[in-house]
Amino acid sequence: MALKVAVYARVSTDEQREKQTIETQVEKAKDFCRLHDLEVYDFYLDEGVSGVTPFEERPEGRRLLEDAAQNKFSTVVVYKLDRVGRDILVIRKFLDTLAKYGVAFRSITEPFDTSTALGKSFMELLGVFAGFERSMILERSKAGLERIAKEGRYTGGVVPYGYKVNEEGYYEPDEEPIPGLNLSPAEVVKRIYNWLAYEDKTLLWIAKKLNQMGVPTNYSLSDLKKGKRTKNLASHWRPTHIGRLVKNEFYKGIHRWGKRNHKTKKKSSGEVERRVPALVDPKTWELAVEAIKRNRNQNRPDHR
Questions:
Q1: What is the mean pLDDT of the segment spanning 223-227?
Q2: Computed from CA positions of residues 194, 196, 197, 198, in that sequence, does the dihedral angle turn out positive or negative?
Q3: 163-165 vs 171-173, strand pairing mode
Q4: CA-closest candidate to residue 20, choices 42, 51, 53, 52
């Protein structure tokens, strides 16, 4: 009688981008099971799941462990150990859990047996290499992001209000008129700075003015351009939101990318300072920031 086994396969989002599919692992497992007269109880396939995610937090990983606890199969088969995880702690916890349930583990491409001390030692060694490989991938990713940052291109995250990312991946002012308004997001930003720097307006006054004009915030602007509004809690302008916007050096053409020591305000070795298209000149930026400080110190009643 053939032994029942569970086949586990996984690909991460990055691997999917590189055209690595889960089907290859499944086909290899089917061939392996036919060759060794193993009956497949079920396939457990996690797609778009990182190798550092704890096994029990993966949708199919959790289901596999639940079935293992009920002794629905005697062995777990994988194409390669790094499909279980790329972190030695994730791998060890998974294998310890299987051992607790009396379930064996086999890799199609790596010759070891979890029932022997040598096999266990070899498996842990492979786990170390899996972690090392992940570290190398992270180092390459970090270096790639730093290179993109130095070139002044978009590296991910929220694009500051008043900007967009062009097809080449560079920031540029968003001059496209907002639907229903004869005003672009870039022009909204310029008005905010002018109101503060040259017209002695306060943050509360500006927030009320923008809301009265029906100017969408960054949170609802993208959906508005698609012909619909979102019911987002941050869909209205607030003084604190405007204050953070004005203090952002991005608007005067400076973007600091990378880690920064928030206590000392000193940039780290991994920080990149780069130039981006400015929406206001440095003098206007400084005057607007000073206006916020001055209004706060004067405790003006409409400044919040």
A1: 42
A2: positive
A3: antiparallel
A4: 51
